Amino acid sequence: EDLIDMEARGRMKTAFHIHGLPMAGSITEAQAREVVDTYYVMFLLAGNFSPSDREDALERREIFAAGYPGWEEANTWMQDLLKPRMEQAEYNFDTTSRMVEDIGEQYFKFNDMEC
Fold it and tell me: Could you tell me the pTM of the whole model?
């Protein structure tokens, strides 16, 4: 594992904790989407995002999205990037961690398009 992947897994562990999700076992697609969204906000804020629980995370995400210039484009980019991985049958910590590793590894391409 390289540094980017280790950082992604660490943030994902935090997101799972915030959402009250099990580190072992399956989660639903809706839970996977929520926890990945929470991770993405953490990623965009360089880790400066610390909601107390799921409800707080969802509320803060909405506030962040409303005030973040280019949120629509950034969110669309992320959804398009993860679409193939979201079509799987099972969601858990490992599968969602691979999703967010993709974000960390590919974000520079989106960032280059924004500039």
Answer: 0.87
Helices 3-19 & 29-44, crossing angle to 10 degrees?
Answer: 120
Specify whether the CB–CB gap between 54 and 31 falls below 8 A. no
Which uninterrupted H or E stretch holds 90?
none
Cα-trace Rg, the chain: 13
Q: Rounded to 5 degrees, what are φ and ψ at 24?
A: -115, 140
Q: What backbone torsions phi and psi does residue 49 show, to the nearest 5 degrees?
A: -155, 110
Q: What is the pLDDT of residues 80-109, one digit of tens each?
A: 999 888 887 789 999 999 899 888 888 877
Measured torsion, CA atoms of residues 34, 51, 23, 31, in degrees rounded to the nearest 10: -20
Contacts by 48-54 with C-beta closer than 8 Å and gap 24+?
51/18, 52/18, 53/18, 53/19, 53/20, 54/18, 54/19, 54/20
SS3 of 30-89: HHHHHHHHHHHHHHHCCCCCCCCCHHHHHHHHHHHHHHCCCHHHHHHHHHHHHHHHHCCC
